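Cast an eye over this sequence plus tokens and explain the fold to me:
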Amino acid sequence: MSLTIAILGRPNVGKSTLFNRLVGKRLALVDDLPGVTRDRREGEGRIGTLRFRVIDTAGLEEAFDDSLEARMRQQTEMALAEADVALLMYDARAGLTPLDSHFAGWLREQSTPVIIVANKCEGRAGEPGRLEAYELGLGDPVGISAEHGEGLVDLKDAIEALAPERTKRAGRDAAGEEAEKPLLLAVVGRPNAGKSTLINRMIGEDRLLTGPEAGITRDSISINWQWNGHPVRLFDTAGMRRKSRVNRKLEKLAVADGLRAVQFAEVVVLLADATQPLERQDLVLARQTLEEGRALVIGINKWDLLDDGPEVMRELRYRLEQQLAQARGVPIVAFSALTGRGVDKLMPAVIKAYKAWNIRVPTARLNRWLEEMTARHPPPLVNGRRFRIRYLTQAKSRPPTFALFTSSGGELPDAYERYLVNGLREAFGLQGVPVRMMLRKSHNPYEEKAGRRR
């Protein structure tokens, strides 16, 4: 997609609302609290036939030190450098502020073409504020309502007038697009585990805000990436604390957004801090991931801070075996996202888990395996009768789901079901993925005939 558009402006003028409107989804968190957006977020936007890449940015602040606000501004400057067109957005109902005028002056000094966007122009209340924008000397202001979707046709006309060659090329590229579907990979974990640092290390650039402050990431940020020629869409998520500790509205929204990323993902990397590995909240997140049917890889960050790595790894594997039986054999990858040591082992583990998540096992092979398992340990007695198993087949993949057909009703004892599921994991390499088994009673065609004869 050739055309890139960045949305800029001071905090709380509606940038994320416009971003959501253009991409047609509620991807960005929206709240009345200023400064919700911190990282720059990308999506595929559309107005009518015009398609483009759109970047949502943090609110512009006058900060040039080592503070979080200064790092947010640097992310916005990088978005501007990538953009073909910049939308400088302001609140028309509040009117132009000195900060709006200051940033308009800054944008005049840049090489990127600028469109002034006056938001909240529904009805006539915003018209006086829209007219104020002429004094900025950046052309005709476009009046819109991001919340209600008004004025987008005028915005499309302004974009096409400002970058006609880019918009034509974007249309040609969109018509010829047939991209390979990316692997959807989410990184989750408690606050300050190093999720954003890890993703920056993986993609080789400072794409996401990082720092010593806990909870920098607020909403789930998706990044398109290539690993060894394979397209990957990475999701960075907000740190997730125990539910009892989450009391602020914005943090609740951020946690809900992170859980939605798990639902949309195919593989989830649960990132834990090596100095506080696999606490209760980590195990809760691992359990939620498997219950959602996603493949799981556990990443242990800050491994370089440990002196007794092998002993810690043994303890981690023991805890997983004892407290998370459904994650038996889940891959654990230890590394330092800050130095990069060991990070190269993560994606091979992810790809292996992804392949296991997609596996299809032929029915004949499954039943040869089932014969061996039942011969080694026959099914137990249920209500005084032997539980008879007919055959096993795979009902679906993503995650691997198997249907076990029996000649009698009732439930298979839990211990024997665990025996079969663990055997499936070992025999077919299903470590790190949830394995589901459904019990089905096979139909006996002679039973009905016998009933009629009687």
Q: What stands out?
A: Residues 29-36, 444-454 have pLDDT under 50 and may be disordered. The radius of gyration is 27 Å. The chain has three domains: 4-175, 183-357, 363-449.
